[in-house]
């Protein structure tokens, strides 16, 4: 296996060397023969590693249509589309955008300034510009913003033979042909037929007789995360998008949903980490610091509040100084437990699993989990403290504090994101650092509250 990988890597290296040699020596035919033999993803990978001067040569070697295939595979988080398009001749760039799938072209144009978008749409061919304008009007992160209008629709009152003729004619421009959607005279979604069923059906059979009229669709304003869940649940390769009157507006393909899932996962991880945006790796330390500082400043003040709480128990610490040893233990266990419960809750919300459960069963389950983990950890730490320090009541104090803290921390880590989700706030905002700091405050209050109760046994 390792030899195969080395051979593959070696082959890719040889291709890169051949391509660069042909590019530098202006050997057009040699470059095109080697380059166009690559998969568009590999073309994009090669292109992304080139400096601006070498990219300028690529534009002279490839047609706008060939460049469109490459551009559709460029990673938005790795490329500044505004700068890349600025290197091209405006007419060349407009032709390239016209040859891209409309939804992919919209993704690129969304990265540009409004005046630049208007400029490209003006010089673009009229048909492509109209499709792109229609998609640009939809709100970001909705089904309408990620759908494509390049799909094949047929009528229920036509034969399989005529449907196959339409399929052959329109397939080159369609994003997928595995599902063919059926519409009525008013362009409303009436059904769907798979490519397999269309191929095996008799030529003279009417589409209405072989189509499936129980078709699952999604509203144009539906959130993209919900669309991704539907695609996962139904195992679809494409999902039709309709308006409130059930008119077929477009389709969402599985490759678009994979991008959505990556985007949503990155967004959730950013919030869990307490960082504004993790989509791109910031090379500039000032930019990176700007993204991280807001949450850090909030957590700094929460930490100062936590420190002030400890200060309020200064008299207790003066009487029993050994209590200070266990503050990091209590706070750390609370933070760890809360983060574990938070991760489970956020994942459950993201997958939709928790929405299927009754809220009281969730609360009881998490309370039970906190009770078991708290009891085990409390008994364990009480025994360790007793054998370590030889103080029974000190061990009992720390054990009970751990027990109560873990129950509350588990409930807080689970219920805070559920509450935020109910209030239509992204549950990932209840980030790891945030829930950890809140649990620190709670654990300190519990620990020193219990210490006052046990004070007469400790002095």
Automatic annotation (TrEMBL):
PROSITE patterns: CBS. Its main location: membrane. GO terms for cellular component: plasma membrane. One of its GO terms (molecular function) is magnesium ion transmembrane transporter activity. It comes from the Bacteria. Pfam families: CBS, MgtE, MgtE_N. Keywords: CBS domain, Cell membrane, Magnesium, Membrane, Metal-binding, Transmembrane, Transmembrane helix, Transport. The chain crosses the membrane at residues 293-310, 322-346, 367-388, 394-416, 428-450. The keyword Coiled coil does not apply. PANTHER family: MAGNESIUM TRANSPORTER MGTE (PTHR43773). Acts as a magnesium transporter. This is Magnesium transporter MgtE. It comes from Mesobacillus subterraneus.
């Amino acid at each position: 296996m390792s030899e195969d990988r080395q051979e593959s890597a070696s082959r890719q290296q040889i291709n890169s060397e051949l391509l660069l040699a042909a590019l530098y020596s202006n050997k057009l035919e040699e470059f095109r023969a080697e380059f166009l033999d690559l998969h568009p993803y590999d073309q994009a990978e090669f292109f992304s590693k080139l400096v601006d001067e070498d990219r300028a040569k690529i534009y002279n070697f490839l047609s706008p249509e060939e460049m469109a295939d490459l551009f559709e595979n460029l990673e938005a988080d790795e490329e500044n589309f505004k700068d890349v398009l600025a290197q091209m001749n405006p007419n060349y760039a407009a032709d390239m955008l016209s040859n891209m799938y409309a939804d992919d072209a919209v993704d690129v144009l969304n990265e540009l300034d409004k005046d630049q978008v208007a400029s490209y749409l003006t010089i673009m061919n009229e048909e492509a510009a109209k499709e792109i304008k229609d998609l640009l009007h939809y709100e970001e992160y909705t089904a309408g913003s990620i759908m494509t209008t390049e799909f094949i629709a047929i009528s229920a009152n036509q034969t399989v033979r005529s449907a196959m003729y339409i399929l052959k004619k329109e397939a080159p421009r369609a994003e997928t042909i595995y599902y063919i959607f059926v519409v009525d005279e008013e362009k409303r979604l009436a059904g769907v037929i798979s490519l397999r069923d269309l191929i095996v059906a008799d030529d003279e059979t009417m589409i209405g007789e072989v189509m499936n009229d129980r078709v699952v669709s999604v509203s144009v304003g539906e959130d993209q995360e919900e669309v991704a869940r539907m695609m996962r649940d139904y195992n679809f390769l494409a999902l039709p998008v309709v308006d409130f009157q059930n008119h077929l507006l477009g389709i969402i393909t599985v490759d678009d949903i994979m991008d959505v899932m990556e985007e949503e996962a990155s967004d959730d991880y950013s919030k869990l980490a307490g960082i504004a945006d993790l989509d791109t790796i910031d090379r500039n330390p000032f930019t990176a610091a700007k993204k991280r500082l807001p949450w850090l400043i909030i957590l700094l003040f929460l930490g100062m509040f936590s420190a002030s709480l400890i200060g309020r128990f200064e008299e207790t610490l003066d009487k029993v100084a050994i209590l200070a040893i266990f503050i990091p233990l209590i706070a750390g266990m609370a933070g760890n437990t809360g983060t574990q419960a938070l991760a489970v809750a956020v994942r459950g919300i993201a997958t939709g699993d928790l929405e299927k459960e009754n809220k009281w069963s969730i609360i009881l389950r998490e309370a039970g989990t906190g009770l078991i983990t708290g009891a085990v950890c409390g008994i364990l730490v009480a025994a360790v403290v007793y054998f370590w320090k030889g103080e029974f009541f000190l061990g009992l104090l720390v054990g009970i504090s751990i027990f109560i803290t873990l129950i509350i921390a588990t409930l807080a880590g689970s219920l805070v994101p559920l509450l935020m989700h109910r209030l239509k706030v992204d549950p990932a905002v209840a980030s790891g650092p945030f829930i950890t700091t809140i649990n620190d405050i709670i654990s300190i209050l519990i620990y020193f509250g219990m210490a006052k109760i046990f004070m007469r046994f400790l002095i």
